[in-house]
Amino acid sequence: MSRRLGISLGVLAIVLVGASILGARGRLSWLPAALGGNTADAKAWSAPRTAWGDPDLQGIYNYGTSTPLQRPRQVGDKQVLSDDEATQLQSNLAYRLDRDRRDGGAQADVSRSYNDAWMDPNRKRLTADKRTSLIVDPPDGRIPARVERKLTPEQEKIRVEADLSTRRFNTGFQESYKDMDVGNRCIIRRRNEGGGHPYLPAIYNNMAQIFQAPGYVVIYAEMIHFARIIPVDGRPALPDNVETWLGDPRGHWEGNTLVVETRNFISPDGVGRTGVVYGNANPKTFRIVERFTRVGPETVNYEVTMSDPETWTRPFTIMVPWNKTNEQIYEYQCQELNYDMFHWLDGAREREKRGEKFDPNAPDARGGGGDEG
Questions:
Q1: What residues does each domain of the chain span?
Q2: What pTM does this model have?
Q3: Strand (E) positions, 162-278?
Q4: Rounded distance, CA 120 to CA 138, Å?
């Protein structure tokens, strides 16, 4: 089985008792110069350049952290943890996220089947600035409200079937390969998870390598081992009718910052119950703008703004520090012919032979869908 196991950052928000921070790009002056590195070193440091004159972002980075995506509601307007709060929280995390524990009964034991040997230790650490959310805009540290609209009969039919597909997967009654999403099938990283763009922390494989060549920047992600080839030579974007899994990225330099705008994401039609667009937004109108800024010898600030007028009431921005590492990125051995597909479908048919029936209202029907096995 592959080194695979997704996790929702929303679960971590339950664990955390922190708070939030900030504003959008241009209003983040209160942040440390280097979110993950040594600030004293950063003050005497100047950004390096490649042989052809572009800012040099190259290296292997880890973006793992336990800082939640959204600010937990129970902390109100608090923006930053105190030193004592951060120390206590990390101590609590070390216990709560320990997957070698054997308390909690059989179900808890099964949920920890991938033990700590598989996990990224950085998942137990807060960002260096002790922020209470990775979202920096809106100021409340929360994802904006979704746009409400009345669905057409055809859209409602699609929504109902997608919901049933998720429930079939969650309860182990998959009818076909389409009940397994693109992540389960090792096609590409699914929406809302680390390894894709946006690059968001998960419980493991929080690593990426940046390569550069004249006219190009390449970002190679550890999770499901894909590489984004980003032109920075000013070429025009692809026509709107050309869609790809990773979208069509176009980059340019603003001072020492690499700015990448990506659109033209593939629609999930016919490939399973989920696509790769964050938040299940509309691939036709979804836009993502990423900013990579090397702020110290060991740190790149990764700031990403996502917008879709069909999905959210306003854009929102996330900032995640990428910290340089001497670790090696290993191949993530995952392919669509993985045995999981056979085991899931075979297991569902075996259960039906025993007289078991799919219950869309079973307690586990709604939760946990989409995690890789």
A1: 9-353
A2: 0.82
A3: 207-213, 216-221, 227-231, 248-254, 257-263
A4: 29
